[in-house]
Every structure is written in structure tokens, then in C-alpha cells.
Amino acid sequence: MTDTARFVRVLARKDVLALAFGAMIGWGWVVMTGHWITTAGSLGAVAAFVLGGLAIVCVGLTYAELAAAMPEAGGEHVYSYRGLGHFASFICTWSIVLGYMTVVAFEAVALPTVIENLAPGYDVGHLWTVAGFDVKATWVAVAVAGSLTMMGINYVGVRTAALVQKLVTLLIAVVGVMFFTGALFSGSQDNLLPLFTGEPSMAAGALSVLIMVPFMFVGFDVIPQAAEEIDLPHRDIGRLLIVSVLLAVVWYAAMIFGTAYVLSAAGIDPDGLAVPQAMAAAFGASWAGKLMVLAGMAGIVTSWNAFYIGGSRAIYALARAGMLPAVFARLHPKHRTPYVAILAIGLVSTIAPFFGRSTAVWLVDAGGLGIVIAYLFVAASFVVLRLREPDMPRPFRTRGGITLGVIAIVLSIAIVGLYLPMSPSALKPVEWLLFAVWMGVGLALYVWARARYGLEPARQLGQSTQH
To answer: CA 327, CA 346: separation in Å to the nearest integer?
Structure first.
């Protein structure tokens, strides 16, 4: 199924942390923090992220044990195959590929949107209007240039991608520490009021923020995708996965608290960029706000880069197992990257900006459902393997065992429920259509690949043990 090239284990501890943490923070905190505070109150928003983060930790602990036990490219694909079988592993992985590819496409759209905040009026040359959004030539040019750059970085090797990830994540962390420190010295406790808010009750406000939390933590799962390129003891892979989630919890809580501490509730525009506004206020200078916008742009790069890595490895894993055409299982003989999968993701990322911002939001919403479906499959695989293979070597053994696994299953089902009709965050009909088309195309490819390659290529999945 594959050529003789193999992945190279080059990712060290800092690389892995930067990969997962950078994937989780992205750009959303810059855009949404003001909305979270005005919806739930300062303490209500922080509490929602802490509680939601702890729920994600429960799911992450099942990942951590399985990632350490089966450190193979593809992550969820490997666990679900060993725990649930051939077809289940395809559904699980094809679902998460949708999530990864849509995030990559969205970041291509987010980049020119951020540029608008730094250089207002730069978007000129009207091309067409899609779903109410005016697509401009310069706007598309920025997006395409960014997309091709990120594709090139990932094409030439994971070392280059990891270096970019570390440097950009460091920039975000430095600016974040500057902001939080400045907020503590310049803010006021009075600005934190009201601590809780919401309609028809304070609990409703916190719940409205809580339902967004799982989507903001998507990204820790890229660690298992790149497991064959991590040069660490297998036990440490599981530990770093959990540490990355906890760091993201601290980050979101700090950004919310810092913003609320500096800006009064009346001074926050829920539709504006509250964090850059708070940064400018904390330092009494407009340059500080622009610096925070640059940090947000860095978040786009880290998320973009991480999901390129995760998505390409997931596609590679499916092809290596005979569930997609074999061409996607090719590794570059020099760079040792799944270059065909990277080019495929790059194509989607480059085309997406031509359809404007509204369609990108549809894609991400549909892709979010794919990611949480994968969470459910992983949690189920965790429980099945604990029952069926209690003696399987587990370098990182999660406390709580089957009970924790059942909790993770329940939480995953609850998150899936957020996408269903009657939920405040339910998918729109067009988003359901996109999801259905993606799954239909995948099933067609799966049937073709199974007829062509049979079951044999997948039989070695999940057989890794601790070295």
C-alpha cells in the first residue's frame, strides 16, 4: 500500500506542546471573548470554560491512554479499528478528516479578515457575492497566499512545521502574559460586575457559553495523529496531551478575566474585538491593541499548521489501511511527509476563500460535528479495549478506568446533541447537507477501496507496544 519511505521521529516535548496548544487557541478567543462576557458575566464565562475544559479533560484522558498504548499515525483511526472494527474506524476517521479540513479552510478565510483590522479598506476589486458576503480580489489574494505558504511549510517536512509552530506559539504566549500582567495592574474589581448574567436566568447565560466550549478545545487530538513522528517515551505522549488541554483552559480563563478586569460590561462591544481593546486600554496605547491582533493572527497560523499536520496524517492512515486510494498513503522520499494528502488539503484551503466567509462558517459547523463524532468513537474504543484487552500494555494508564470511559461517552453524546435540531447551536439545513455529502462521498470511496484492497492492509493497526 505504501512506498518504502517512513516517518521520522523528530518531534520533541516542546514541539508536541506547541502543536496541541496552538491548535486549540486559534483566533476564536480574539473574536468571541466580548460575547462570552456579555452573555454570562465575567465569572460566569470563566466558570463555563473551566467546567467545559474539565469535561474535555475527561475525553482527553481516554485519548492519552490510547495514544501512549498505540503511538501510530492516524490516532483515532488506530484506536477505533482495534476497539470497534474496520467500518467503525473508517467512519471515525473520515468524520475527523472533515473537521480538520474545514478548520484549515476556515483559517484561510480568517487570515484576510484579520488583515482588515490592521489595514482597513485594503479589500478592493469586487468579484462576486456569496451568501451575502462580497468577495474582493485582494481579500482572496491574501487568503490564497497564506494557504499556499502553509501548504509549502508542511510539504517540506514536519521539522519546518514544528519550528514555525514553536516560534508563533511563543509569540502568542508572550503577548498573552503581557496582557494579563498589564490587566492586573490597570484593571478594577468594579469592572468585573456583574459576575453572572443571562436571560431568563444567570444559569442560562453560563450555559450559552458552555455549549461553545467544546468547539474551542478542538485540537488536542492532533497529537495522536502525529504519534509516529514524536520522539518521546510513549508514556509522555499521554501526559503531554493532558497538559496541553490544561494549558488551554488556563489561557481562555486568563483572557476572559483580563478583558473583564480592564473593560466594564458597558464598555465591551459583544460584536467587536474586546481583547485587543482591553490590551490597548491596559497599556494606554493603540500599538498594544494592534499587537494583540497580531497575536490573534499568530493563533490562526498555529491552528492552521496543526490541522494541516493532523488532517494529512489522518488521510494517510486511511489510505495505508486500504480505506482510501493508495495514492494518499505516499510519503515524500526526501521530506518524509504525506505529500499527496497535504496537497489535497491545500487544494481545499486554497479554493475556500473564493466562496467567501459565510460558506466557510457552514463548513466549520459541519466539520465540528465530525470531530465530536470521533470523540465518541474514541471513548467507546477505550471502554471496549479496557474490557476486552485488560492486559494490553498501557504506558500511560488513566485512573478511573471504565467509569471514566463511560463518562467520556456520555459527555461526547451530549456534545453531539448540541448539533442536533432543538439545540441552540443546531446545524443549519445547508450544514447538514454538507455533512451528508461528505459522508456519502466517503462511503463511496470506502466501498471502492475495500473491493480493491480487501481487509488485509488494516490488520496490523494498533499492534504497537511500548519500546
So the answer is: 16
Q: 418-425 long-range contacts, Cβ below 8 Å, gap at least 24?
A: 418/211, 418/214, 419/365, 419/368, 419/369, 419/372, 423/211, 424/208, 424/211, 425/211, 425/212
Longest dimension (CA), the chain: 67
Shortest CA distance to 412 belongs to which of 59, 53, 57?
Answer: 59
In degrees and rounded to multiples of 5, residue 338 shows phi and psi of -75, 75
Q: In the block, which residue shows the cell 496490523?
A: 460
Which cell numbers hold the place of 266?
458597558
At 299, the pLDDT band (50, 70, 90 cuts) reads very high
28-40 vs 234-262: helix axis angle to the nearest 10?
60
Dihedral sign for Cα atoms in the order 51, 53, 54, 55: positive
Q: Check: pTM over 0.85? Answer yes or no.
A: yes
Q: How crowded is residue 329: how many other Cβ atoms within 10 Å of its Cβ?
A: 23
Cell of 17: 506542546
**3-state secondary structure at position 133:** strand
Could you give the CA distance from residue 127 to residue 90 in angstroms, rounded to a whole number?
A: 39
